[in-house]
Structure formats: C-alpha cells, structure tokens
Description:
alpha+beta; Aminopeptidase; 11-stranded mixed sheet; 11 strands; 31% helix; globular
Amino acid sequence: MDNKFIEELSLNNWQPLSTLLYDGWVLRFANGYTKRANSINSIHYSTYDLNLKIKQCEKIYSNNNLPTTYKITPFVHPENLDEILEENGYSLIDSTSVQTLELENINEPKLKSIQIVENSNAEWLDNFFRLNNVEANSKDTMERILSNIKTKKGFISLYYEGQVVACGLGIIEREYIGLYDIVTDINYRNKGFGEQIILNLLHWGKVNGAKHSYLAVVLNNKPALRLYSKIGYSEIYKYWYRVKKS
C-alpha cells in the first residue's frame, strides 16, 4: 500500500473543527488541541508564490491565536518545503514514526476485562481526560473532534480491580484500523496493560473488517516504541512538525 494512503487515513480519522483549503494546502484548526488538528498539510501542488503563501498562512494562524505549524511528511509540496521553513525561522519538533502491522497473525489478548463502545460516552471521556491530563478548557474541543470522525470508531477501556487503568481509540477505514491516544494510568505502567489493550483493540478491528493497522508514535517515546515493536509494528515513514519561532 502506498504510504501516502496511510497519511490520508490519518488526516481523515483525526478531524479538526474546521478546515481551510488554500492553493493545494490543507489548513486545520481545532482551538490548539493537538498539533495534528492545528497544522498545515501541504499535500497538493502549489501555484502561488511560496514566500507570500507562507506569510499569508502565518497571518491566518495568528488571527486564530495559534502558532503557525506545518506537518512535514515525505509527501509535501514543494519537496524542499522543510528547508524553506527552516530558513524562515521554523523550529523542528516532535519527530514521529508512522508504523503499520498486518493483523493476520497477531497474538490473542490474555486480559479480557475490557469494554468497547462505538460512540464516546461520559465514562470513557472522563477516564480519557484523567489519564491524559486534559485541561478543562480543552475538553469541549476534544469531544467535538471525536464527534467529527465519520468512520467506524471503537472507544476502548481496560479494567483492573474495578477501575479503568488504560483507554484508547481505534478507527477503521478501508480495512485499516488506526490507533489513537492509547494511554495507561501512570501508576499501572510497565505491567503489560498497554499491550493488552492494544491486542484487544486490534482483535475488535479484525472482527469489524480490518486487515491491517497503523499508528504514529513520537520518536522520543522509547517505552511506546518498544511496545509497538514487540507487538509487530514496523516503521514505514517519519514525519515532524515545523513551528514558527516566536
């Protein structure tokens, strides 16, 4: 499968609150909650003067009280956009590995104390906010982002001794399940719960037609990289963000 296809899925399945199409670039806005939903994706060819276009994008994001942020993938247009942004004072942050997995031979989960619902509810949201330390002023934005996702969703919670110790989200589109925001309670990490919640979510994906999986993990998150490697994920490409220095 073309790697650009995976990038397309990732754009579809983490929706911003609003989008502006600007000469082949997709500008995304979501009140600053996550860079994925508040960045510029230069996925189509440009026709305007590039320097003027960059300045105009900076003005648009500034008017929305957001830092100007570009997501830099192997598919950007023009191909030297990363170098141009660096020359214009943009810092490189959050280098990220995009990884995929075939689901045919994944291991069976050992823990089955899970709940998966296809629409987020108050309990899942409360646990997600708690485990991710989501600030109060971002909760409404997060809920709206989730409601904007139009493909099949699985909101998973893993219980241990009567309480939720891990949760996350799987989104299925075109036989791929994408994993988003898998998080384990800080007091229950390194106990295998992360692996178990992922295996349960992948099996739910298989039952619902998924044959493959993808995810994105920040390269400085060494424990997550080890976990995904153990499950069988492997990297297909990297991306990072360029953010305008203040």
